[in-house]
Amino acid sequence: MPGSWSVELVRVGAVLPSVLRDLREDLSRRLAHAVWISPREIDPAVAFDGRRQQYLATTLLQELLDIPIQEGVRRIGIAQVDLFLPVFTHVFGAAQLGGPTGIMSLHRLRPEFEGDRPDPVRTQQRVLKEVMHELGHTLGLVHCKVPWCAMGASRLPEQVDLKDAAFCEPCSLKIGVPSVGDQI
Ligand SMILES: [Zn+2]
Ligand SMILES: [Zn+2]
Predict the structure, then answer these.
(1) Model confidence over 134-153: pLDDT tens digits?
(2) Annotated catalytic residue: which of 8, 71, 134, 169?
(3) Do 15 and 81 contact (CB within 8 A), yes or no?
(4) CA of 164 to the centre of ligand 1 (A)
(5) Residues 96-106: tens digit of each pLDDT
């Protein structure tokens, strides 16, 4: 676990600035570590796979890594395109275990993706949980068996809804964030 770390959010393509602003606020409240929005942006076009009509997550992780990064910074890209890894039909996000970069996408987290009514509050909650999940990976956390922990693996948005936007106590201790009991 890195002793001192902070979180940098990077906009990847067409994502509403308000999504990043809300995320920055939610994360700073929960993590007690600095969170800021990068002035740099990434164009996801380089990661487009014409055959799958999706974007390769590892290419975007590499793009994020190509921007100089300071010691201790965990950089998470926020995208709205459909991400994949070769062995999966899709992923909500991906990250380097032990850092420093992660990526996640709103694409499949929006209720309208499954034909439901748009629900910005639910979308924001899901995005927060999945960003915390990828951030946890960059800080060395692996998938957690505690049912509500943000480090639980999710393939479906409904599974994301069952998680809390928080880490369980053992996960919290490993990365040095306040455990749920300490939160207001
Ligand atoms: Zn994961
Ligand atoms: Zn956990």
Answers:
(1) 999 999 999 999 989 999 99
(2) 134
(3) no
(4) 15
(5) 999 899 999 99
Could you report the per-residue pLDDT of 64-94, keeping only the tens digit for each?
A: 999 999 999 999 999 999 999 999 999 999 9
49 falls within a domain: yes
The CATH number of the domain holding residue 134 is 3.40.390.10
Provide the domain limits for residue 92.
Answer: 6-141
- Ligand 1 center to 112 CA (angstroms): 23
Concerning whether 134 is annotated as a catalytic residue, the answer is yes
User: Is this structure's pTM higher than 0.90?
Assistant: yes
The whole-angstrom separation of Cα 41 and Cα 22 is 17
User: Is residue 37, in this structure, part of any structural domain at all?
Assistant: yes
Number of structural domains found in the chain: 1
- Is 148 inside a domain boundary? no
